[in-house]
Amino acid sequence: MKNNEGRRLYWIAGLVAAAGLAGWVFFAPEPIPVETAQATRGPLEVTVDQEGEVRVHDRYEVAAPVAGKLVRVALRDGDAVRGGDVVAELEPAPLDPRAREEAIARVEAARAAVREAGKRVEQAAAVLAQARSELARVERLVAERFVSPEAAEKARTAVRTAVAELEAASAREAAARSEEKVAQAALLALPSADGRPGRVMKITAPVSGRVLRVLQQSERTVPAGTPVMVIGDPARFEIVADVLSSDAVKIRPGATAWLEEWGGDRRLRATVRLVEPYAFTKVSALGIEEKRVNVVMDPVDPLGPLGDGYRVEARIVVWSAPDVLKVPASALFRSGEGWAVFAVADGRARERRVEVGARNAREAEIRSGLAAGETVIKYPTNEVADGVRVVAAKR
């Protein structure tokens, strides 16, 4: 009898266990599908991202020096010109004594501009000589291992910048001399004292380059100072992006910048040449007034098909490290006063408090709380909590 009762108890216990197991199988919550990623080690860059545009480094606006009848311009956009070539002709209108005095004053102003441009060339040449001397000194210190190779790269960037500034100053001096000739030509084209009309004035190109845009194509009467065309050197470009003033204070000349989303299949490298020292007010798409600053960059890689006014996406590096532990920024969430992630262990989500370092829009540095190779949950929803069963979603 006792054996029969024991068997009966075993059967009852087995049935209860089976019923419990069946209930757990049928009524237990399904694992939550989540998107996962791994904590990895690698390089990290913090950038200031802003839309910018390509523009010709030096553009020159050719204008009518005096009022008169402009002869139809034969040049077209994109035509090549050399410095001193005649690009337009103007028949000066009769001028009164006051206009004559103004023409004389313009000649004096043009001569002063030539003198100023010459001084700027001398200054740029002195800066270049100093930069080359500094580069030689730094390269010697690098060879002796007193300073890091990065210091030599900064010195080389300074030399390249100084060379560009000297070339720009020389071009501005040539343009100023051309403007002086135009002003003198305007003076010679004035009617003589006995009333005889002046000669047809020939307007010349200030520098060699290409016609970027013809502003006045047809024959017409124009007042003094009317822009006729814009000339520039399409082989010398720069990139300008206006960033928030709060971001501009983080950017330094010589910083690396990457040009993306310009239409090509690779990103292009550039270096910051200038953070303009003044800010301006710009209204955002949301109607908010913002203080912004222009950041000017010089391309390092060839720009290929990019031209004046083309759009690019500039990512200016303000911090970088070659080897850090990082996770996708989408895995982070606030936990009290700090940051946390959900790590996946044994099929369950485990909340981990982490210390976050540098971060950008895509990745974040993890200083403590995680180890390389651990799996974290991206974009955790409100359903995800500590201890909840999870499963990696199929892609």
Summarize the structure in words.
Among the domains are: 32-43 and 322-392, conserved putative lor/sdh protein from methanococcus maripaludis s2 fold; 47-54 and 235-321, Elongation Factor Tu (Ef-tu), domain 3; 95-190. It is an alpha+beta fold. The model has no long low-confidence stretch (mean pLDDT 85). Strands 2-11-15-13-12-16 form a 6-stranded antiparallel β-barrel. It has helices at 2-27, 97-143, 149-188, 245-248; strands spanning 32-38, 40-56, 59-63, 68-70, 80-81, 86-92, 201-204, 209-214, 220-222, 227-232, 237-244, 256-260, 268-275, 280-283, 289-299, 311-328, 333-335, 338-345, 348-359, 363-368, 375-378, 390-392. The radius of gyration is 35 Å and the shape is elongated. The longest helix has 47 residues, at 97-143.
List the helices and strands and how they pair.
Layout: H1 2-27, E1 32-38, E2 40-56, E3 59-63, E4 68-70, E5 80-81, E6 86-92, H2 97-143, H3 149-188, E7 201-204, E8 209-214, E9 220-222, E10 227-232, E11 237-244, H4 245-248, E12 256-260, E13 268-275, E14 280-283, E15 289-299, E16 311-328, E17 333-335, E18 338-345, E19 348-359, E20 363-368, E21 375-378, E22 390-392
